[in-house]
Design goal:
The complex is a heterodimer of chains A (403) and B (333). With 403 residues, chain A is α/β, with parallel strands linked by helices. Chain A is built from 13 helices and 14 strands. The radius of gyration of chain A is 21 Å and the shape is elongated. The chains are: A alpha/beta (403), B mainly alpha (333).
């Protein structure tokens, strides 16, 4: 870990600790509870586990620094198993039985959508992580704050890149789950804005084992690049089929390709693909975070957005918790007042610096804007190398239209 | 006195009394939500029990009807501004019509062919709810407002009591059908369609009636679930719902009178109770299911009903059949 990076990471933890101490201190006070409801063993378990670990790092750092005004942070974790109704029931449990201050979670869109009305019903802040479906933040949801990018923001990023690199015609292939459908819809819209036409399009069932017919149609088209919107396992099948059928066009895969599962299954077939990422590995604090993450969990981790989203959500929650009005509400024992103060605190502070995005970017929330990430300066692109093992900065001079 | 015991009427009364007292023993809205969901799944499972357990028609479309009922209820209010009291029966009628329309051609199929055809219908519904974003709200779904009349809004407790009453009516109809002429015709269809036809049973009519009735049970359950969740989204029609339904059948007991209720209790509460085991939760859940499949083929309901029958059997006539006879013959597979 570089000294500067380590310093930056520690500074943010220290800032919380100092603010907490300024707000008051006590030797033994009731713990503040944070609920984590995420997919820990279902189809999107990679995202849930990595985000949970990121969140845990933020909480452990705060506890090591004395908690918030002497209140330790207790994490209560539930595995939603990608089951929306189970996730919704856990959300009610967090709000009612666990008396949690907030809920953090919601990587897949389905469970996130199911938790939303529960958060509204029980008036508990819900920090939603990487669920990308655009309209999750379209409906009025006073207790919702989204930390991951919307699918439309991914689409804006790669439409800009394709335009800059001179692409005019592309092909889309996506699974027919909400993530794939929503991503494809966002792609159509934003590619059109850049004058890029979709010349071929294929949807497939996530359980489909043979994707040759779809891929052959893409190959037969005059597309200059292929955009893929999959989940991990089916994404690997798409990449292997593209490789086996020698499609020979540049490939962009949605953020699901950041997950180890996809790259492990696809192996060398994933080498060279371009993936939008919200983690800028040139940032020293980001490098320091991933070194600390690897040290904490004892395994090599590629720099993806999932642990960072959990960490950022946790850090922002802790920053707001340390505000005097939130501490006062917590100390009064009125959990509902504390939840309201936390929500209002997020809106009052409005802008937060996190590890996602480029150096200049920050999260911003408002009454009518509940997704924190901005449209610009948020995404970087990464590519896969060494047989699906490593995520490295791409050489964009080679990312040019296939002729 | 025997008429009171016949067909499990006393058990129904006991279940309803316990259900009505239950909220007084619960300490939080979360717990009330969980017991409300039990009744929703019990309703869904009652329809499935009639269709598969008693009539032998394996349908994988129950979750689709569950979703259509909830979507119909939500959309009639959200898009047309209808009152929930009008939207509710109309949504149920819509589901009944859809079931009749798809039931006529599909019920010509048997066994796994019927399962596959109904599963295809379910997948179409899931695709529709996910893809037709402008109409269905896509994966974010549609919000369902609390039922309100003037200044009065239905509370969680009032919703729970309403669900108990609806489920109790559903259970009475379920048991009445099993005990009556239609129930015997259904069992005859299940055991041998040709034989049943030769005895004068209109097999097509019986199958279609039960298919529509099961869809209505699912629709009512779906509306209840929508009211509890305060929204409807594509997950209402997705695979985990049919998995829950099949698990209820295994745990509660397929073709039994009270299997849907007992199975629903276990299936709804078990994941909550096992949450404390963390990573081992799924393993424990799977092992328990395996135990049920191997050692309790009639499920918990089968065990309880046999115990009840043994207790009620007069000691002077050990060989005599119980008057309760709650396990429908051949029902449990």
């Amino acid at each position: 870990m570089t000294r500067i990076g380590e310093g930056l990471l520690k500074t943010s933890s220290l800032a919380i600790a100092i603010t907490a101490l300024m707000a008051g201190s006590a030797l033994s006070k009731d713990a503040i509870r944070i609920c984590s409801i995420d997919d820990r063993s279902g189809a999107a378990a990679d995202t849930g586990n990595e985000s949970y670990r990121g969140l845990k790092m933020a909480v452990e750092a705060a506890n090591a620094a004395g908690g918030i005004s002497g209140h330790m942070i207790e994490m209560i974790e539930y595995d939603g198993k990608t089951d929306p109704q189970l996730s919704a029931s856990f959300a009610a449990r967090c709000a009612e039985d666990d008396n949690a201050l907030l809920i953090v979670g919601g990587n897949p869109a389905g469970p996130a959508a199911a938790i939303l009305p529960i958060a509204d019903e029980y008036d508990i802040p819900f920090f939603m992580l990487s669920a990308g479906t655009d309209n999750l933040t379209d409906n009025p949801a006073p207790w919702l704050f989204r930390f991951g990018p919307r699918n439309a923001q991914d689409a804006i990023a790669y439409a800009q890149l394709l335009d800059e690199q001179g692409f005019k015609k592309v092909a889309l292939i996506y699974n027919t789950l909400p993530f794939g459908l929503d991503s494809a819809a966002a792609a159509r819209e934003h590619l059109a804005e850049h004058g890029i036409s979709v010349v071929a399009e294929e949807g497939y069932d996530i359980a489909a084992t043979d994707l040759s017919p779809q891929v052959l149609n893409l190959k037969a088209s005059d597309a200059e690049a292929v955009l893929v919107f999959p989940y991990p396992a089916d994404g690997a099948r798409v990449l292997k089929t593209l490789d086996q059928l020698q499609v020979g066009k540049p490939v962009i895969v949605s953020r699901s390709a950041l997950l180890k599962t996809l790259r492990e299954i696809a192996g060398p077939a994933s080498d060279g693909i371009l993936i939008p990422n919200t983690v800028d590995t040139a940032r020293e604090d980001v490098q320091a975070f991933f070194q600390a993450y690897e040290k904490a969990y004892g395994e090599e981790t590629q720099p993806t957005l999932y642990p960072v989203i959990g960490y950022d959500a946790g850090m922002i929650a802790l920053q707001v918790m340390a505000r005097p009005e939130v501490v006062e509400a917590i100390e009064s024992g009125d959990i509902q007042a504390a939840r309201t103060a936390l929500r209002d605190g997020v809106l009052a502070q409005a802008e937060f610096k996190g590890l996602q995005g480029k150096e200049a970017a920050s999260y911003s929330f408002a009454d009518d804007k509940r997704h924190g990430s901005p449209d610009q300066d948020w995404f970087t692109f990464t590519t896969v190398a060494n047989g699906g093992v490593d995520l490295v900065p791409p050489d964009l001079s080679k990312f040019v239209p296939a002729r | 006195m025997r008429s009171l015991f016949r067909n499990g009427n006393l058990a129904i009364v006991l279940i309803v009394v316990v259900a009505l007292i239950l909220p007084a023993l619960l300490s939080s809205g979360y717990q009330l939500r969980m017991v409300s969901i039990i009744w929703v799944f019990a309703l869904l499972a009652m329809g499935f029990n009639l269709l598969y357990g008693i009539t032998g028609q394996i349908s994988m479309a129950q979750q689709a009807f569950f979703a259509i009922g909830a979507y119909g209820f939500a959309m009639l209010q959200a898009k047309l501004g209808w009152s929930p009291f009008v939207a509710l029966p109309v949504a149920v009628v819509i589901v009944a019509c859809v079931a009749a329309v798809i039931g006529l051609p599909l019920l010509r199929l048997r066994t796994h062919y019927l399962a596959m055809a109904t599963l295809a219908f379910s997948l179409m519904m899931v695709g529709l709810t996910n893809r037709w974003v402008d109409f269905t709200g896509g994966s974010a779904g549609i919000q369902i407002r609390t039922i309100t009349v003037g200044d009065w809004s239905m509370s969680r407790a009032e919703l729970y009591y309403t669900l108990v009453i609806v489920a109790a009516i559903g259970l009475v109809i379920h048991n009445f059908i099993i005990s009556g002429h239609l129930g015997r015709a259904m069992q005859a269809v299940r055991d041998d369609e040709t034989g049943a036809e030769s005895l004068g049973v209109n097999v097509t009519a019986v199958k279609l009636r039960v298919f529509v009735l099961a869809a209505v049970y699912a629709a009512v359950g779906g509306i209840g679930y929508g009211l509890i969740s305060r929204q409807v989204n594509p997950s209402f029609g997705e695979f985990p719902v049919i998995v829950s339904l099949l698990t209820i059948a295994v745990v509660g007991g397929l073709g039994t009178r009270f299997g849907p209720v007992i199975g629903a209790i276990v299936v709804v509460l078990a994941p909550q109770a096992l949450a404390r085991f963390g990573e081992f939760e799924t393993l424990i859940y799977g092992l328990c299911l395996g135990v049920f499949l191997i050692f309790l083929p009639n499920g918990l309901s089968g065990v309880m009903e046999r115990l009840g029958a043994r207790m009620l059997r007069p000691s002077s006539a050990p060989g005599r059949r119980s008057v309760t006879k709650n396990i429908v013959e051949g029902g449990a597979r």
